[in-house]
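Annual report, structural modelling task.

Input specification for the zinc ion complex:
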Amino acid sequence: MPIGLLYRTIVKNSNQAVILMYHRVNDSVHKEMAVSTENFQWQMNYLKKKKYAVISMDELVHRLENKILFEKSIVLTFDDGYADFYENAIPILHHYQFPSINYLVTGYIDSKEFFWWDSDIGENQLMTWDQIKELNTYDGVYFGAHTVHHLDLDQHEENDIVMELTKSKATLEQKLNIRVKHFCYPRGKSTKLAVDLVRKYFKTGVLIFAGQPINTNTGGSSIDLARLKRVPIQNSDGKLLFIARINGWLVLEEISRKIWDKIHTYTNK
Ligand SMILES: [Zn+2]
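The model returned the following structure:
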């Protein structure tokens, strides 16, 4: 069955938006989080060719709050502020005039600190403040907060969470002279407390997989903006899985993931 038909059969909501999560666009780092420039180019071209509306996070909020029906809407998000966003992703995004948002970890910028998953690389390979400031002057390039130290918010107490949220927000606002309205939960980890605090300091918060599908069928206003669902794009996905992901066709994937987790857990015992 062609995937388009399969999609129409399974997903009846056409007025939905899908928020995609990227980390890196890089040909020399061989990790799932690093999508090759060829794949990224193909994906952006596909969005253009198939007339997806690639919109900013602000525009998504506007449409949800005003219950404006939309279809085939995509928001492009990037996490952690890697330099290959500046070097490889931005030229392609610029070519297609697609807006994007990058969630920055303020404590790691222009620092020798690197994330634990980059210990094999031994450096953080993040954008410098100069690069971020340059991108901040471009149309359609937006920045959001991703804490100061990339803290799992489900592992910390209120004071620490408040500090991570408010300090990362304040640093970005002061350095870039912008209002920072959007937040990304490190590794998608959240609790009710964390969500309540994100709602207090930001307009939106993005998760990974968790959260409701984003559409206006439910009335728009029932969408919790502090718990927006995101769909990760990985380098090994392939074209069909990319097409499935941008159509929000994740029901079967989530079921298979749960089954796989159960089998995996079982066989490991
Ligand atoms: Zn992150």
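The chain is about 40% helix and 15% strand.
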